[in-house]
Amino acid sequence: MKIRDTNTRKLIFDRSGLIAFSVQLKKLRHEAGVSQSQLAYEAGISLSQIARIETVRINPTLSTVFAIARALDIPLTTIFNFSLSDEKKTEKYF
Amino acid sequence: MKIRDTNTRKLIFDRSGLIAFSVQLKKLRHEAGVSQSQLAYEAGISLSQIARIETVRINPTLSTVFAIARALDIPLTTIFNFSLSDEKKTEKYF
DNA sequence: TTATATAATAGCACATGTGCTATATTTTTT
DNA sequence: AAAAAATATAGCACATGTGCTATTATATAA
């Protein structure tokens, strides 16, 4: 029958990485001196989306981030200028 | 009644940016000498997802990209070390 | 060429990103 | 303090990202 083996499927939501991104975005937006509303308008995305990103409620897509970087007129290397915590090396610690 | 004003809503799919990202990913993956399958395993995401990204069929989320960067053990500034075409400055040209 | 590994497609189900439209909450100005 | 501006939340509808499981196409090795 194949019904769905009781939800084992889990999508990734990298909270720590998204928090770091949020911090970076807020910082750059403030430096640019624009409100969420202005940024949303310039980037052609919704205000709610900017707010959701800054409050780490969602996991945005690359296209959304690209639009933001363009609107702020900053290179991707600037908006992504932060480090991901390396839980990679730590490897299953229990 | 509010039925839905005949689909005006359009999500962003930044083809050129996603192509640039795809090129960069393939390059880095090859430099690391890993197959899509190995990368998928290391990153904890599905093989089909890696293929979709490299063939520009989807618009991945940040968490997915973060997982890939971790798996390849490269900083975000490396994987995002490319420029977005600046259709921003051009501004509505018609 | 034949076998084998790698990459590309496909289709389904489910989770979630995004736009919209409001409303509430917080911060900044006056 | 009151008013105004900026942020944060919410909920709905729809689009689409992601995992799975196969299958097909392509490249590499024998």
Outline of this structure?
The first copy, chain A, has helices spanning 15-32, 36-43, 47-54, 62-72, 76-79, 87-90.
What is the global morphology of chain A?
Answer: globular
SS class of chain A: mainly alpha
Write down how many β-strands of chain A occur, each being a DSSP E stretch of 2 or more residues.
0
On the 0-100 scale, what is the average pLDDT of chain A? 88
What does this structure look like?
The structure is a homodimer of 94-residue chains. The first copy, chain A, is mostly helical and 94 residues long. Chain A has a domain at 38-80. Helices cover 56% and strands 0% of the residues of chain A. The first copy, chain A, has six helices and no strands. Chain A has helices at 15-32, 36-43, 47-54, 62-72, 76-79, 87-90. Chain A is globular. Chain A starts with 14 loop residues before the first helix and ends with a helix. Residues 1-6 and 89-94 of chain A have low confidence and may be disordered. Chain A binds chain B through residues 11-14, 17-18, 21, 44-45, 59-67, 69-71, 73, 75-77, 80-84, 86-88, and chain B through 11-14, 17-18, 21, 44-45, 59-67, 69-71, 73, 75-77, 80-84, 86-88. Chain A binds a DNA duplex (30 and 30 nucleotides) through helix 3.
